[in-house]
Design goal:
The chain is an alpha/beta fold and 557 residues long. The chain is built from 19 helices and 22 strands. Helix 17 runs antiparallel to helix 18. The structure holds zinc ion (ZN).
């Protein structure tokens, strides 16, 4: 009897092995953080095709090994689910990598010098765009003006953005081409900044006023767009980002589709197109489909207000350093009924809404709008999202969980804005700024990302920012508003499984579990045990998307 059982056991296990086949890839001897609380500790992972075939003990996983299996032995390393970024401007990011970089400019002179150098490489009439300057990093923090750059760009139209994209600097040539003079009125939701003495435009255009110039800028040829996408995908892979929830103009969606048709995507993209043209997405889905695991249309993005850095985020109280204003509603939120009707219609078509709100009043209004839409259209699993949710009134924090609204936040902004936010909004309002801890404690599903190109795409910088809240100027070594710090584990969940939830993908990605897409990242060290201040020094060794290695660090010599 015993030998019979032994043979039976032998047959069963081997038949099983035969049925399960060989893994293409096995990761072993590392520490694994699965993002799934239900799993016992995992010692190894087997990947077959584009999926995770099994997770388990070394012995269990080694049974998947065959002669064609690639074995990655990773002692001392940490394996985590691929990072998901909840908010990117992905194609812009690729263009920015290839364009003039104004962010490192430490003063106005350096800004002009970088533009001079760039202009020298261009034919007359070719635009300089992008840039991402930050006047808050300069002595005096004054806004730049066209006079500063006119002399070095006489034949080059310039329209370069502040890093948050909520204002731009045009030179005189660009203003002339756009026909902007002292008599041009401010458009709804925008400001043409003027010299207080002469009334002449200074070159700074805020929010909706930017369109007066940006509509003149010719779109890039296809080939440049394809190259920008490639650069962006390389950047994502280098930092372990395997999925992005993108803010996608339709032209970028075309670029993504071209890459998909050629089988060139190495990052998964959920594309959110403008709410103002919501019918177009609904129509597209009806005709084709929403998409697949690589590229999918995932609802809409709209704006309630501007940004803190551009003094256009919409608050209940005025700005301290500019008491004439409390910020601006975005043009698409004027009047509010315009926004409401679009939200109502898009929601009725069962499509997801993500809406940008930064100031406390914009957030309050948006929560009201979400509540009204849900009431009108009836119960549904809709997962409304507020992009940024940066400044909240205390009494609004609990509404996120109650209404099922996802705070879609970008923690790097916290350590960036934290350098100067207090001078703008004062000591009281900063207490509920980037309220990570309070949102979690109130039961909200907090999600994280970068807002690349506004901030670097590197998720480890985001984890570091949320956990330490140390501002970039290092003036807050114990954390800026330290009550709102969260743990490494909480921040990692916001970058993985909770982000998957935010795009309705929690059953296919966001954690290391059998059957999920094989999106994994190998880090060179265990970020759960090192001091959090050292998290930015950790680096990615491998990025694996759909079972394929899309990035491998070059070994140090
Ligand atoms: Zn953004």
């Amino acid at each position: 009897m015993r030998w019979f059982l032994a043979i039976l056991w032998f047959c069963l296990t081997n038949c099983l092995l035969f049925a399960q086949g060989q893994a293409d890839l096995i990761l072993i001897k590392a520490k694994f953080w699965t993002a799934s609380s239900g799993l016992p500790s995992v010692e190894a992972v087997a990947v077959k095709g584009n999926r995770i075939a099994a997770v388990g003990s070394d012995a269990e996983i080694l049974r998947w090994r065959g002669d064609k299996t690639m074995l990655l032995e990773l002692p001392g390393r940490l394996v985590v689910p691929g990072f998901i970024d909840n908010h990117t401007h992905f194609l812009d990011g690729g263009f920015q990598l290839r364009s003039v970089d104004l962010r490192p400019a430490r003063n106005e002179k350096e800004l002009a010098e970088r533009l001079r150098q760039r202009a020298e490489t261009l034919a007359a009439g070719q635009w300089i765009t992008g840039g991402r300057w930050d006047h808050e990093a300069w002595p005096g923090a004054k806004l730049p003006t066209r006079e500063l750059i006119d002399a070095v760009t006489p034949k080059t139209p310039v329209f370069v953005s502040r890093l948050d994209g909520h204002m731009g600097l045009a030179n005189s040539l660009a203003l002339r081409l756009a026909g902007i003079t002292r008599t041009t009125p401010d458009p709804d939701g925008g400001i043409i900044v003027r010299d207080p003495e002469t009334g002449e435009p200074t070159g700074i255009l805020k929010d909706a006023a930017q369109a007066l110039v940006s509509r003149l800028i010719p779109s890039a040829p296809r080939q440049e767009e394809d190259e920008a996408l490639r650069a962006a995908m390389n950047e994502a892979a280098r930092f372990g980002v395997t999925s992005v929830q993108d803010i996608t103009p339709w032209s970028a969606f075309e670029t993504f589709r071209r890459a998909q048709d050629r089988n060139q995507l190495t990052v998964r993209i959920t594309a959110r197109t403008p709410l103002s043209a919501w019918e177009k997405q609904a129509e597209w889905i009806r005709k084709h489909s929403a998409g697949d695991d690589w590229l999918r249309l995932g609802g809409f993005k709209a704006f309630m207000d501007g940004s803190l850095g551009s003094t256009t985020a919409y608050f209940f109280e005025p700005y301290l350093d500019d008491p004439k204003t409390s910020g601006l509603l975005a043009s698409e939120a004027i009047p509010e009924s315009k926004m409401f009707n679009r939200m109502l219609a898009a929601d009725k078509a069962s499509l997801q809404l993500s809406i940008h709100a930064i100031g406390d009043r914009a957030n309050h209004m948006l929560l009201d709008l979400f509540e009204a839409v849900a009431k009108r259209n009836g119960p549904r699993d809709r997962r409304f999202r507020i992009e940024h949710a940066q400044h909240l009134r205390r009494e609004d924090i609990s509404r996120f969980a109650r209404l099922g609204v996802i705070p879609s936040m970008q923690p790097y902004h916290c350590i960036d804005d934290g350098r100067w936010a207090e001078k703008r909004i004062g000591p009281e309002r900063i207490k509920t700024t980037y309220a990570f801890r309070s949102l979690l404690d109130e039961g909200a599903r907090l999600t994280f990302g970068s807002d690349w190109t506004v901030a670097p795409i590197n998720p480890l910088l985001g984890v570091y920012a949320a956990v330490t809240r140390r501002t970039l100027d290092d003036r807050n070594p114990l954390g800026w508003v330290p009550e709102e710090k969260i743990t490494v584990e909480e921040a990692m969940k916001s970058y993985t499984i909770d982000n998957a939830y935010a795009s309705f993908d929690e059953s296919s990605k966001g954690s290391l579990e059998t059957g999920k897409l094989a999106d994994l990242v190998v880090l060179d060290r265990d970020i759960f045990t090192i001091p959090p201040v050292r998290i930015p020094q950790a680096s990615v060794l491998y990025t694996i998307v759909g079972g394929k290695i899309v990035y491998r660090a070059t070994p140090r010599k």
